[in-house]
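S1.2 Input.
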Amino acid sequence: MAGQSLRMATAATMTECSIARLEKDAMIRVLHDEPEFAEKFMSHLLTRNIRVEADLVDQLFNSSEKRLARMLLILANFGKEGKPEPIIAKVSQEMLAEMIGTTRPRVSFFMNKFRRLGLIDYNGHLEVHSSLLNVVLHDDPHINGD
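S1.3 Output.
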C-alpha cells in the first residue's frame, strides 16, 4: 500500500493461521467504498503504529528483564477486557529471546526468577499474573536490571 517494492521485515506465526493477499487496487477500492471497513482498518494501523513506537522505546531504554516482562504481558493480552489469560501458543524461551533481543540463557534466568517471585506459573502452559506489571511500571526492589 505504501509503494515499497521490497519488504524490509519478515513475520513468523506462533500458531496456525491463514493469510490472504489483496491486490493494492482492490484494497483501495474497498477503503473508498466501505467506510466502516476503512475506519476499522485505520484504527488498526494507528494501534499498530503505537505498538511499534512502544517496542522501539522498550528496546532502547529498558533492560532485557523489563522487555521480557512486557512481552509476557502482551502475549497474555494483559489490559484487554478482564484478567490476563494463559498464553495459548507454545512459546519457547528461544522465541522469547528473539522477540526481545537477548539470549535464551538470559530469558531462562528471568523466567525462573519471575516464577520464584510468583509473577508467572508455567507447567505445560504459561500463566502470567498481574503482579508482573510492577516489573514494567516500577523499579521494584525485588527486580534488578541486567
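S1.4 Remarks. The chain has a mean pLDDT of 85.
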